[in-house]
Amino acid sequence: MEQRRISGKGHWYHETQSSSSPTEVLPLVPEAAQVADRFLLNLTLPASLLAACERWLTPARALCDLFFPRAVPVNRLRTLSAYDRFSTALTVAQVCGVQRLCNHYAALLAPLPGPDSSRESNRRLAQITQYARQLASSPDVIDSKAQQELDEVGLTVYDIVTINQIIGFVGFQARVVAVFQALLGHPVRWLPGHHIPPHALIDESALNRDAWEPVVPGVEQRNASAQQLASLERWQTEPLLQQLTPVLCHEPAILDYTGEILVSGIHAAQQVDIPDEAVRRAVEQLTRSPDRFSAAQFTPLTDEGLPPAQAINLLTWSAFCGWLNRLKIAIGRGE
Q: Which tens digits make up the pLDDT trace of 195-214?
């Protein structure tokens, strides 16, 4: 997938084709690739606020490095290249419409060699892109056919676990960045030339714990590595990860950091006692249209007496729940 600079419009867009032309892969903001903080993308924030969020920010930053190393060795079990990972991240960032994030992933993707121009490679990339766009914005359309199509283009179980985690994580990252920008009072900005439809709300009844079951095979204990067994034992006792753990522990390092975000205190935000209407409006706007989340939704929370750090944690928790719910939709089904 390439980013083309369109003369007269001053923006790039994302395509599911590769190109050999070196003049067509310049990102709009090349310096966006060079950030010290790969999760918050160098937003300037008060030290006290960062300290209050440090317990979940630390594993989130670690996941950036784990998902997106600059070079990724591929083999028959793990076929996702660096290009696959960054193009998926850019697709999700575009769907979320958070411009800072789009600039970042576009700048990282642009210099990478794309896949060959064979029909099979183009079909594979197109399928991954379509799946990422659907799971990020319209998770209700993900069904057994969508899951089967990933298998048909050659993604392995390890690939499927990783790609779904990347989609969930980048959606989470986009919403967290949007929340911090709202705290700072940054003006709302949309990608020029792009209309971004609101994301579909997830039907919670489809995720009923009693009816849900995985469709992706889990790790078999008799064949598991020591790290997989340790992750399995650790996270199967956590109620919100219990059902997902056998599948997610195919990639135990990713699961461990995901779990650490969960247990860092974020979920205590559920107990915050402020008027439901202010929370409902903020969470719904962040869930459906992160690109339009602004101080107009954030300020009512602090006006009700909620400290900024608690407001951040409350909204981060809602974003994390969206990540977990997408994982359940992606790797399982409910009745």
A: 788 998 887 766 666 788 99
